[in-house]
Design a protein that fits this description.
The complex is a heterodimer of chains A (354) and B (541).
Chain A lengths: L4 E6 L2 E6 L4 H6 L24 E4 L6 E2 L10 E3 L4 H14 L12 H9 L22 E3 L9 H9 L5 E4 L6 E4 L15 H5 L5 E3 L13 E6 L8 E7 L4 E6 L13 H5 L14 E3 L5 E3 L2 H19 L6 E3 L5 H15 L4 E3 L4
Parallel strand pairs in A: 1-5, 15-16
Antiparallel strand pairs in A: 1-2, 3-4, 3-5, 6-9, 7-8, 10-11, 11-12, 13-14
Helix pairs in contact in A: 2-3
Chain B lengths: L1 H4 L17 H7 L10 H11 L5 H11 L3 H10 L10 E4 L2 H5 L2 H10 L6 E4 L11 E3 L2 E3 L21 H6 L4 H4 L4 H11 L11 H10 L5 E6 L8 H8 L1 H15 L3 E6 L4 H16 L7 E6 L9 H8 L23 E5 H13 L7 E8 L5 E6 L4 H8 L7 E5 L19 H6 L8 E6 L4 H15 L5 H18 L7 H14 L3 H5 L1 H10 L15
Parallel strand pairs in B: 1-2, 5-6, 5-8, 6-7, 9-12
Antiparallel strand pairs in B: 1-3, 3-4, 9-10, 11-12
Helix pairs in contact in B: 3-4, 4-5, 10-11, 12-13, 12-14, 13-16, 19-20, 20-21
Classes of the chains: A alpha+beta (354), B alpha/beta (541).
């Protein structure tokens, strides 16, 4: 049963939304955009950045729209003192950074600063943070771009249930760090890259082998299915339109089966696509001991002949099938069908089983 | 080991106090440690004292033992000030009162003669009457004495050594014959008692609200006294621990709670020993049969005095305040309705129930420290004036007074002209300050208000949990602005400072960020000439 609709007032106008919906989403239904830096729909409401505070009648202070749920008769305002707070909070965040966008990556703080015409009145004398250089090949982290929204840490804890990142310390010394300040490779991190997909300021980022100078907005997204396993995660191949090469892989929270989450292979292991060593046609090892290109018909024919010979000379129980983890369930079904009915062996295994 | 393994962020050991781990001792201790997440802080405290200050190996070992993710234990360890420093460290208080009486010189002297023992400057240690003060391990220097008066409600002039002493003064009589709940609420309301921790919420209303919620309920005593200049809860716990325990049991009976906790700040070793001894006596006398009352010891974090931060801390997470509503009376410890009350507030309740709410003279404990001859903790009426406190209770001013903080860091700053104002909430409101925790700090002429303000902002910045933007950056920013102003530099215009104060007061999650603007606004009002370089405040904005 879908929740009942409730009526509330939004900036003096009557509005309706499902009961219990976050105010942020209820307002969006009516075209009122409420900014946030720390909210992520995958995560529990946090209410840390305070960018989304709105006036709610009856509350002595503004409330965070990312954590407050709409109720019948609520009177919400986003246009009295709220815009001034947003600007001031943006100024504060800018004052905490030598350069709010040292990596030049998409950055929601910089976007807000432009929107509210906010500038840092000064830079805090202790704004410079200890630099980070990790030896892993996939993810980098620039603490100077971090706004401590804690999205990455909450992602690791709430979504991945792993222990890769910590919100360390208190007050001016608070930092996001790979646990204990170790290299990610020495934590439980699986390098899934979920933290960088949650980061609003590009502080955690992909270390591309396929570098691109293009701002992300101009990359062409090609929706595809990840081929690494049978789950079928939906991915977006981000293609540089000039070179026509994949420069990174992302996913969207709206995609079924993986809800925008990826693993280390899906997110980072795409370099095989353009790799010079990639096999692009079937090869057969001939009498001379060398591999020779051939057609699919010839390759399959050769393999079938070989299998039939072994079966004839040594019996079907001498043959076993090992199926790739990259096969779908349907393909695995066909493998066991082939093994049992055509070859006549029960020795069938998928490496997904281990 | 970790330093060799990790070539990423920190090639060296994290902590200058890191010592080799006594692996045998650790292996002995670990199996004894309970694995429930609510025991995390307690376990960390035991490891620190019995094995050594927490380093990554110890933190990970405990995480694995308790089946908590390592990263989360690291978050908790790094949140507190003292878990990664050795228990024998010297901690020198650098809070404003100690600062105005020579804490920096004391710190420098101690560091010079450290002999390998870590010497740290730390925020208010809650022994302000002995400023400048330090903790050498657990012992206070100079030797603490209690300076107090004969108060009718709390009777701090007489120290209860044992439960028998307490009973000889009429203790425990109430516990056996508690009036019905409605009557208790009515008496509390009639007495006008409100939270003396600083927020001032009416106690009767809070008790009534908790009683409306479903059981099981919890009772928690907030003994994390951390407001600079405030020593009153320590006096109650050190002089009359049995009184606090009886009051707590009254609250537990009222709330039908079978589990109660006292969250005590780590720095109060004497109070800890006295409460543990008193708890043993209560247990032996059968007063805890069918229920439990436990001591939870913090690890150095001012913010854990904020009630929802305290709940997070008790549940084994970083002490970061929760979003309110819901309030702890509805959703508190482990999600259950919870009655949280400050030590002093609770301790007044036996007197109120004995004398009746109408007859109880509205009093509270005033901690008086700084430039006075006899700093101490005195029971006095709510409408006492600063002059009376200083002259009639605290032996008179020791020096010419330049500024007075009436009730802890966030209450505000008053000029000497306010010496004759009754210190009630209503009277103080006109002066733009709050009564707070009644931690009256008297500052001498030699300590300029601008210095006091900069130190206050530094304190808030250090103690901010970091969760919300306005508190984390606002306090750091204002500290910077006032330090710059001390050097005749203008980092931000007055108008912009006002905008920052507005945003901090309105959008911070908890009282730390919401209250930080009070001292700033009071200083602007009473020492306007000091802030002239920042420019005029625009009349209409």
């Amino acid at each position: 049963m879908s929740p009942a609709m409730v009526e509330f007032t939004l900036d003096g106008k009557r509005a309706a939304a499902p009961e219990g919906e976050l105010l942020m989403h209820a307002a969006a239904r009516h075209g009122v955009f409420i900014p946030t830096l720390c909210h992520d729909d995958k995560l529990d409401p946090y209410g840390g950045c305070r960018m989304c505070v709105v006036g709610v009648e009856g509350s002595p202070r503004p409330l965070p729209a990312c954590a407050t749920r709409v109720a019948e008769g609520m009177v919400v305002s986003t246009n009295s003192s709220v815009p001034a707070y947003r600007k001031t909070l943006t100024e504060m965040l800018l004052a905490e950074h030598l350069d709010p966008n040292p990596g030049g990556r998409p950055n929601e703080l910089v976007d807000l600063a432009e929107e509210y015409d906010a500038e840092a009145p000064f830079i805090l004398p202790d704004a410079k943070r200890e630099p980070y250089d990790d030896r892993n090949h996939f993810m980098g982290y620039n603490p100077d771009a971090c706004i401590l929204c804690n999205r990455c840490v909450r992602y690791t804890q709430e979504v991945m249930q792993c222990s890769a990142l910590s919100l360390e310390g208190r007050g001016p010394n608070a930092r996001i760090v790979p646990t204990h300040g170790y290299s990610w490779l020495d934590t439980e991190c699986e390098l899934c890259g979920g933290c960088l997909s949650a980061c609003p300021t590009g502080a955690i980022y992909e270390k591309f082998e396929e570098r691109t100078e293009r701002p992300e907005q101009t990359l062409r997204k090609v929706k595809s299915t990840c081929t690494f396993c049978g789950v079928g995660c939906q991915i977006d191949l981000n293609v540089d339109p000039e070179t026509n090469r994949i420069v990174k892989v992302t996913s969207d929270p709206s995609y079924v089966s993986n809800e925008g989450n990826l693993c280390v292979k899906g997110r980072f292991a795409f370099n095989f696509v353009h790799h010079p060593d990639r096999l692009t046609e079937p090869l057969i090892r001939r009498e001379d001991g060398e591999l020779h290109p051939t057609t699919w018909e010839d390759a399959l024919e050769t393999a079938a002949r070989g299998l039939a010979r072994v079966r004839e000379e040594h019996g079907p129980q001498t043959i076993g099938f090992l199926a790739s983890a990259r096969l779908t369930m349907e393909e695995n079904f066909l493998i066991q069908k082939l093994a049992r009915t055509v070859v006549g062996t029960n020795s069938v295994h998928s490496c997904e089983a281990t | 080991m970790h330093s060799a393994r990790s070539i990423g962020f920190r090639p060296q050991a994290l902590n200058p106090y890191d010592r080799a781990v006594d692996a045998l001792r650790l292996a002995e201790l670990l199996p004894e440690l309970p694995t429930d997440r609510t025991r995390l802080l307690e376990n960390l405290g035991r490891i620190r004292r019995e094995v050594g200050p927490l380093n990554p190996e110890l933190s990970d070992a405990l995480a694995d033992h308790m089946n908590i993710r390592r990263g989360e234990v690291h978050e908790v360890v790094s949140f507190y000030s003292f878990l990664d420093v050795p228990p024998d460290s010297v901690r020198v208080c650098i809070g404003p009162v100690c600062d105005c009486l020579g804490a920096k010189e004391l710190l420098a002297r101690e560091q010079e003669h450290a002999n390998g023992v870590p010497v740290l400057g730390v925020e208010c240690l809650g022994h302000c009457e002995h400023a400048p003060v330090l903790l050498r391990g657990d012992s206070v220097e100079p030797d603490p004495v209690h300076r107090t008066n004969e108060g009718r409600s709390l009777g701090l002039h007489q120290r209860d050594e044992t439960l028998a002493d307490y009973q000889a003064r009429g203790g425990l009589e109430l516990l056996g014959s508690l009036p019905p709940k409605e009557k208790i609420v009515a008496e509390l309301k009639a007495s006008g008692l409100s939270g003396y921790g600083g927020a001032g919420f009416p106690t009767g209303v809070k008790w009534e609200a908790v009683a409306r919620e479903l059981t099981p309920r919890y009772v928690i005593v907030n003994a994390d006294e951390g407001e600079p200049g405030t020593i009153k809860d320590r006096y109650v716990m050190e002089l009359r621990p049995h009184l606090l325990l009886e009051a707590t049991l009254i609250a537990m009976d009222f709330a039908e709670a079978t589990e109660g906790f006292i969250y005590l700040r780590e720095e109060y070793a004497t109070a800890r020993a006295r409460l543990l001894a008193a708890l043993d006596e209560f247990r032996a006398a059968g007063l805890l049969d069918g229920r439990s009352l436990e001591l939870v010891v913090g690890a150095g974090a001012y913010i854990c005095g904020e009630e929802t931060a305290m709940l997070e801390s008790m549940e084994g997470r970083r002490g970061m305040p929760r979003l309110k509503p819901p309030f702890p009376s509805e959703v508190g410890y482990l999600g259950r309705p919870t009655l949280i009350q400050n030590v002093e507030t609770l301790a007044h309740i036996p007197a109120i129930l004995r004398e009746g709410g109408e007859a109880w003279p509205p009093v509270r404990l005033w901690s008086v420290s700084g430039a006075v001859r006899e700093p101490g903790c005195y029971e006095a009426p709510l409408d006492v004036t600063l002059r009376q406190l200083i002259d009639d209770y605290a032996g008179g001013a020791a020096e010419e007074i330049s500024a007075i903080v009436p009730g802890g860091a966030a209450s505000g700053i008053l000029p000497p002209e306010a010496l004759d104002v009754p210190l009630t909430r209503d009277d103080l409101r006109e002066w733009g300050v709050g009564a707070g925790s009644a931690g009256v700090q008297v500052f001498p002429r030699s300590y300029p208000p601008l210095r006091l303000l900069a130190e206050t902002m530094r304190f808030f910045a250090e103690e901010s949990c970091q969760k919300c933007t306005p508190c984390r950056i606002g306090n750091r920013g204002l500290h910077h602005v006032f330090e710059e102003l001390e050097h005749d530099r203008v980092a931000m215009s007055r108008d912009q400072v006002e905008e920052w104060l507005d945003a901090m007061a309105a959008t911070s999650i908890c009282g730390l960020g919401q209250g930080a603007p009070f001292p700033v606004r009071a200083a602007f009002r009473y020492w306007a000439e000091t802030f002239e370089p920042l420019g005029e405040k625009a009349e209409v904005r």
